[in-house]
């Protein structure tokens, strides 16, 4: 199929007019006089423009409050179709935004600004596991929920996140902390190969022996900065026979004890355990996931309970690893986690190499418990995700190695309701609360001489953000960027730049 100017039907538009056509032409760069007419694609590839009836539902990311207007959203069904779209964008100086799951904290999956060409990879669902090497081949549009189901059917798992709506693309390219990462390493540390389309529209293979410098860069800093990854090869592992999940809650008065104990316990606990601690306005909750039975899980928890005292409520579930993963989804349909599961949310992140100081806990107490929170907010929280274990002992170097030695990362977040559950409605008092909270924590940051943050939870308000994400790796990343994408086709507000800011 070739999309041609005379036929509006060739755009797969449900509702279009010549007025809308001219509006889009006006929005394109001066060198462009057509609306994506040079994309060659198969009949299964579709294009959504600002003329399309479903544009308003497709242009939003997971967090509805980001209200950006991409130039178009393209859904290629083949690698060749995706490559053609990239060549067109490059020729017309249009930035390309890959979208796998759309979970970016700053909506970078839709460009993080107006006017990008979004290439949505939902049609890339290939999956297999090599019986000899146990390497899983995974299409870049796959979400974790369906992926876990497919892996479970083969008796395997990969270390990845707890949220089933997350796409394999973003988590694999930026880090990936969650189930089994303390036992097997972060998701990105387990990527052994990728198929990528570069800014010239060339399909290349990337591994430790093929384009090794790009392989290093993609694993930890590759989310949309260097090219469009269409397929991942990820080391999978035999699933353990038994997994236990224990969820415990304490009253809010115990939050300081829990934070102290959690950091101390987490620094030495068996690497077969993953844990997430949530401090909210009404409770403190700890979820522990362990590859063992109930008795074994209780044993590894006992040192923590010796410091905190018994919880007010405990729920224990013993089963297989897929059962544990479904509990982590917290009510989301694991096997069908599409973008209908939206939220209005603002999140930010820091990482810690030791237990939080009392000054930081004072800030948390002020913002979570004592300050006046926005009336429209439905939840405020701080989540602590446990790192360490195999994350600190990677087999192949990657950008993500900068975070070796981190005890836990934190997310500070606020959620709010929107009348009518409509997208594109911001809450100014909510976003201000979020920024004020983040700034207050940064002012007393105790983990080191400079702020360190997790690149998969990017924050455009973070001072010296590139240094916080990548540390001394930044110049090397810039060198890779100049070699693979010198015209900055793959760009967004916090993509790897072509040169360091002065």
From TrEMBL:
Family matches, as InterPro entries: BBE (IPR012951), FAD-bd_PCMH (IPR016166), FAD-bd_PCMH-like_sf (IPR036318), FAD-bd_PCMH_sub2 (IPR016169), FAD-linked_Oxidoreductase (IPR050416), Oxid_FAD_bind_N (IPR006094)
Positions of the FAD-binding PCMH-type domain: 66-239
Cofactor: FAD
GO molecular function: FAD binding; oxidoreductase activity
A Pfam match: FAD_binding_4
Keyword entries, A-Z: FAD, Flavoprotein, Oxidoreductase, Signal
Taxonomic superkingdom: Eukaryota
Annotated signal peptide: 1-27
UniProt-listed PANTHER family: BINDING OXIDOREDUCTASE, PUTATIVE (AFU_ORTHOLOGUE AFUA_1G17690)-RELATED (PTHR42973), FAD-BINDING PCMH-TYPE DOMAIN-CONTAINING PROTEIN (PTHR42973:SF39)
Similarity comment text for this entry: Belongs to the oxygen-dependent FAD-linked oxidoreductase family.
Protein name: FAD-binding PCMH-type domain-containing protein
């Amino acid at each position: 199929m070739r999309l041609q100017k005379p036929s509006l039907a060739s755009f797969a538009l449900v509702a279009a007019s010549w007025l809308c056509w001219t509006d889009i032409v006006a929005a394109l760069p001066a060198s462009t006089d057509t609306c994506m007419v040079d994309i060659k694609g198969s009949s299964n590839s579709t294009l959504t423009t600002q003329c399309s009836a479903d544009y308003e539902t497709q242009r939003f990311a997971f967090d509805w409050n980001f209200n950006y207007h991409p130039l178009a959203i393209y859904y290629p069904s083949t690698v060749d179709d995706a490559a053609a779209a990239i060549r067109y964008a490059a020729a017309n100086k249009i930035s390309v935004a890959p979208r796998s799951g759309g979970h970016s904290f700053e909506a970078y999956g839709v460009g993080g600004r107006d006017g990008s060409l979004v290439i949505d990879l939902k049609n890339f669902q290939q999956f297999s596991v090599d019986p000899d090497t146990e390497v899983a081949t995974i299409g870049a549009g796959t979400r974790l929920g369906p992926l876990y189901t497919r892996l479970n059917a083969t008796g395997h798992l990969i270390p990845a996140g707890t949220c089933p709506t997350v796409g394999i693309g973003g988590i694999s390219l930026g880090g990936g902390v969650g189930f089994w990462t303390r036992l097997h390493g972060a998701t990105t540390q387990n990527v052994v190969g990728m198929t990528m389309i570069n800014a010239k529209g060339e399909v290349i293979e990337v591994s430790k022996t093929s384009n090794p410098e790009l392989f290093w860069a993609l694993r930890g800093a590759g989310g949309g900065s260097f090219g469009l990854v269409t397929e991942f090869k990820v080391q999978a592992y035999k699933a353990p026979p038994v997994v236990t999940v224990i969820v415990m809650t304490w009253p809010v008065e115990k939050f300081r004890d829990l934070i102290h104990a959690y950091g101390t316990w987490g620094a030495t606990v068996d690497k077969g355990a993953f844990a997430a601690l949530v401090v909210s306005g009404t409770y403190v909750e700890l979820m522990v996931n362990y590859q063992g039975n109930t008795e074994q899980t209780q044993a590894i928890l006992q040192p923590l309970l010796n410091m905190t005292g018994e919880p007010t409520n405990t729920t224990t579930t013993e089963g297989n690893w897929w059962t544990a993963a479904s509990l982590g989804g917290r009510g989301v349909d694991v096997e069908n986690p599409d973008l209908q599961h939206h939220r209005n949310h603002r999140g930010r992140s820091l990482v810690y190499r030791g237990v939080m100081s009392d000054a930081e806990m004072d800030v948390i107490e002020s913002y979570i418990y004592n300050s006046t929170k926005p009336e429209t907010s439905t939840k405020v929280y701080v989540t602590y995700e446990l790192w360490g274990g195999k994350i600190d002992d990677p087999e192949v170097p990657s950008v993500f190695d900068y975070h070796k030695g981190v005890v836990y990362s934190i997310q500070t977040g606020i959620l709010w309701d929107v009348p009518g559950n409509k997208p594109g409605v911001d809450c100014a008092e909510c976003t201000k609360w979020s920024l004020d909270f983040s700034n207050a924590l940064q002012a007393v940051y105790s983990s080191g001489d400079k702020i360190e943050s997790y690149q998969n939870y990017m924050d455009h308000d973070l001072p010296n953000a590139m240094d916080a994400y990548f540390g001394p790796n930044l110049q090397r990343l810039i060198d890779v960027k100049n070699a693979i994408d010198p015209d900055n086709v793959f760009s967004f507000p916090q993509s790897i730049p072509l040169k360091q800011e002065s």
